């Protein structure tokens, strides 16, 4: 267990903000992502075509935004838990060369059993050029139960109460 | 064609119809290339010995890999590709090849089991529902597709719900 992981014990609660992580992009990365996913859409590798479509340069693929958001979760968990769900919305384009920054906030915690808990995260991915949101996601992650603050309220009952 | 009764009828006729495709074997090469493309540094996705030490049979695919592949086949001949480089068959049952503007409206993924190199994957695609909505640019259809990815034993690997907007 790394120092970062050890210091998480007893810390997480609804409202906790996770560290921001930067994901640089490049034309080569976008090309390689198209190749790895057999995506022939010219908007991702033909700058002239992208300009004719009204964009300044080739675009980051929707699924590459999704890959950054998934990586943010799996990097943070390490081998301590797992990513259960990820719901992705791409809101604005990002062009090659943008650095994308992902930030996660805990929106709910749920104790599953003696050893495990689940947390809900809201993730926002912004582009460096103007700070606008390119993608957002909601994630559900299984973590060791002892990462939760002892005072963290279990949100399950609150949610069911709201729904009813 | 825009949003009209004929299009809505064609989509409604697809509701609940299962389209099963054999996607083939997820090879370690595909997984390692995808991991390299997204900038992954975890050895879980590239180092077989490390993945085995974590209890997996081989390297594991990054979570959204199988949902991200656009085409599992070789791709259409060049003369059949559209002006934008894409193929007419884009994994959207009920949507005509021409005349409708297709926009992605998001994807919900539920990860059931790790996808390990060597897994043979089958995908079942179903149009779940269609609804009409007024947008600032006129009428729009909101279509939800369900994708079930399973291994050769029928175990669920990944479930997704894709939202597609048609104008």
Largest sheet of chain A: 5 strands, antiparallel
Residue stretches of chain B low in confidence (pLDDT < 50, at least 5 long) are: none
> So what's the overall shape of chain B?
elongated
Report the sheet with the most strands of chain B, covering strand number, pairing sense and barrel closure: 5 strands, antiparallel
Question: So what's the overall shape of chain A?
Answer: elongated
**Backbone structural class of chain B:** alpha+beta
- Overall strand count of chain B: 5
Rg estimate of chain A, integer Å: 18 Å
State Rg of chain B.
Answer: 18 Å
Please identify the oligomeric state.
Answer: heterodimer
Work out the helicity level of chain A.
25-40%
Mean model confidence by pLDDT of chain A: 92
Terminal CA distance of chain A reads 41 Å
Strand order of the largest sheet of chain A: 1-3-4-5-2
Mind explaining what this structure looks like?
The complex is a heterodimer of chains A (164) and B (167). Chain A has 164 residues and is an alpha+beta fold. Chain A is built from 5 helices and 5 strands. In chain A, β3 and β4 form a beta hairpin. Chain A starts with a helix and ends with a helix. The C terminus of chain A is likely disordered. Chain B is an alpha+beta fold. Chain B contains 4 helices and 5 strands, in the order αβαααββββ. Chain B is elongated and about 55 Å long. Chain B starts with a helix and ends with a strand. The mean pLDDT of chain B is 94. At the A-B interface, α2, α4 and β2 of A face α2 and β2 of B.
Key features of this structure:
heterodimer, A: 164 residues, alpha+beta, 5-stranded antiparallel β-sheet, 27% helix, elongated, B: 167 residues, 19% helix, 35% strand
Short description:
The complex is a heterodimer of chains A (164) and B (167). Chain A is of the alpha+beta class and 164 residues long.
